Structures
1.
Amino acid sequence: MPKIQAVRPGSLAEELELQPGDEIKSINGQPIKDIVDYQFAITDEAIELEVIKADGEEWLIDVEKGYDESLGVDWEHPTVDRIKLCHNKCVFCFVDQIPGNMRQTLNMRDDDYRLSFLHGNFVTLTNLKQADLERIAKLKMSPLNISVHTTNPELRNFMVGHKKAGEILNQIAYLAEHEIEMNTQIVLCPEMNDGEELDRTIRELAVFWPHVRTLSVVPVGLTKHRRGLAEMRSVTPDEAAKVIDQIEAWQEQFLKKNGTAFVHAADEFYVLAGREVPPAERYDEFAQTENGVGLIRNFLDELEDLKEQIPASIQARRHVAVVTGVSPAGTIQRGIKLLEKVENLKVDLHVIRNDFYGHMVTVTGLTTGSDIVAQLKDSCTAEIIMIPDIMLKDDADIFLDDYTVERVSAELGKPVLVLPANATGLIKGALGVTEHLPPRRRYEATLANAGMLGCAGGF
């Protein structure tokens, strides 16, 4: 039974006098075994809660609530029961490429279809039993995000490191038959699942369109901490250009046939190849921005919309430093060029090399506080430092290396302004007009099944 870890102030749970340690046995007679049971049951506007108090006393509570109103509790585990862990040995797994002394959450290998449904995590489906597939179908748990990598059974068994990995097409066929929408991904490893294997994967997944809604292709991410693992190298600029050509040729076919591009190259390929990203209509409603697909296009289009709002001057002199990773530097520079025309405003761009993970890692989302401090200590003359929120953990102002924003600020002797990782955050942050920005979005990406984390488009 789900045990309550915390009760949020002012919540329905507080009004009902629920407390940490209490267990929710059922809602409207439905036993609550995990977060999916809870999420479906709590949508009813009239509910009967069966609660076992921490002292063993049993309560039966009738509640009238709004459709979107939750109890306002935090659970002991994100899935209420325990998270389904990953038992794969993916040849590109990022967790195997990080220092061993990092915080526990970064070493967690989750592969839970419930987190895919609720939060968009990518899962491999290797730990699913038939009962899990039937539950997904019965509850219409859609969309799911699935890490495919290849549809070649033998190759997938090797790449994912699991004897059931080769069953992926049968699993996708079952989900498609039951009208489950899927977004899929390939982490592209040179000389492994590229070339003809990439063509095969695209062709075999396209059969299941529109249930397989999109397919993203992202380059493998490698760090300097990669030891005792399969031999692997990064994608070269020439290979990135070939992948783009290959994918865009497929897009032309799918656009003519279905009116949708279906398969997309991650922004990082365009950065590597030195090419302009496609127009917005090529991105299928930007279904995979979380996977680094279309973020540059979103940034540039948003920047174009903001041009008319940039003033000719500001009253007080202002000098800010914009901090970014290597990949998005060219994109961010286009925004800074617009700001250079503003009288009384000076904007410096500081591109942070990733010494912590290694220089092969170039995305902003994996930038650490220690690297920012080391590289800005003697070079930053600005009065204010701006960083994008994608550098920080979801529930605290903490970088991947456990540096806090407060520590970075103290060591540099300057205030640090955390902003949304988009064009609005860049422009309004630089101008000092931040009171109407939307709540910033912070998260800590799951590292287990990721290729390139972070994004090329965020500043």
Note: DSSP finds 14 helices and 15 strands in the chain.
2.
Amino acid sequence: MPESPEVQVLADVLDDAVSHRRIIGVDVGEFRSWKTRDRPVEGLVGATITGVTRFGKHLDIDTDRGDLVVTLGRAGWVRHRVEDDDDAAHDAAEPTSPAAAVIATVELDDDTALEFTDAGEWLSLALSLVDHPQDVPAVKKLGPDPLSPTYTRADFDRITVGRRKQLKALLQEQESISGIGNAYSDEILHRAKIAPTTHAAALDEAEREVLFEAIRDELAEAVRARRSIPLPRLKQAKAESMRVHGRTGEACPVCGGKVADVPGSKGSAQYCPTCQGPAD
């Protein structure tokens, strides 16, 4: 699943590549992905793209006729197709699978196109044409973004102090803190040396500060690292950077202990019992 560091890099690359381009054609091959039936896809034809930004794990393609909000879901992505260009570094190929299905295509006036893809077993990518990004319910409910320079310790304390919820689940709760998914929640808790099953309410002042800094540092470092990676290799680069996520049975690079599955996760989440303590 794309998370905020990868989506931020994608947004930045597309912003540079397609801003000020005019849309000359739109084709939605999988109509289930088009969520705003009262706004036909044809309404985008003739529109000019004015910028590309990110909201949590969602992509916003802003035009002079509204915002095309892309909910990437589990396996969605957007790539910039450039005809007769063999340089993969210029093409935002999906960080999932070369067999990803093209769900929709937006043709641009410079003979390039945006292709919206999904590589999952079921459709998770969604497209919404709205007046404002917050008109999309999933965007409207987003909590503060820890990659934003305005994100503060007070924002973090509001979602942790007194919360009887396990930290692993809380970090992925988009209404509380936006942009973090399964992989980075594992990495953040490993950096903070806190067990994933710890309840937020159990943290003392010092532990909250450590976790707050771990969130900011983990995500910011990931964005910086991904900027130097060609977009078609983002998935591989993300997987290779993980210290514990997806590394069951391997040695922890920090302490040398064995990485284990988080209890109850069925192998989808990992932690280091030596660094982080036991997870009950």
Note: The chain has two domains: 4-140, 153-242.
3.
Amino acid sequence: MSSLPQRQRVGAYAVLLREHGGRIEVLLSRLAPKVSRTELWTLPGGGVDHGEDPRLAVVREIHEETGLDATVSETAHVYSSHLPRASRDGQLVNAHAIRIVYAGWVPPDAPEPRVIEVDGSTVDAAWKPFDDIVSGAVPAAGLVGEALADHLPFRLQRVAAYAVVLRGTGDDRHVLLTRLSARAAHPGRWTLPGGGIDHGEHPSVALEREVEEECGLACEVGALVGVHDTHFAGNAPSGRLEDYHGVHLLFAATVGDGEPAVREVDGTTESAAWVPVADVRTGRVEVLDVVTYALEVVS
């Protein structure tokens, strides 16, 4: 047993992931030279003050080290590191570090990270490519690798109902579409009107509600015309990176008179319009795969 003074420290940290430019990135903080003489990156976070809730501590630390306001998970992983001979403030001690690591996320439109605290333990903050961390191209503390292995993107399967609404014939045929906002995983692209089915909600009721919210039009739901699915990693409107599997029920539908207009506020839909089918088929309008699939099954 070491006779050195015992020092135990409880710290709270977070793994924040995002999809950016087709790759997964991790938010990291660079340790100051007084902590590490060589370049070393770690998870944003730090010591939990006496009487402080660890979840509040990590949110505070993330803001100080990156300037970002984060949301963190309710649950966490706990890691223990025992160094019988460690240097702390120029003194040899028997050190024991307990690290509580949460999953965290920031809004998709969050600014670039920057250090807020002065003369702290970190001097920089940045989103670093996941692959560069794993390969060692980004020199990272051991905690980073341990935590990344336990904090894979959140898995979500979502069942949604969408309306295939057509009007006109021949070259004048149009399809009712909605354009995704910056809060969505594929901003700027067009998709079918519709959305997630609430627990216990009938798909046709969900679809009527979604079309009214996204297009401002009354919807009459017809027969099921197809089932489509998609699987990708992307940021949810909250900013949380998700391993997402969407199952889409496609229904033939008709809508009432009037021009489409978005009714929901701060949602994932920024506009709605009747779009020429020819523009979709020729690629003049950028759409999600579900639109292409829908036009194939109803043609």
Note: The radius of gyration is 25 Å.
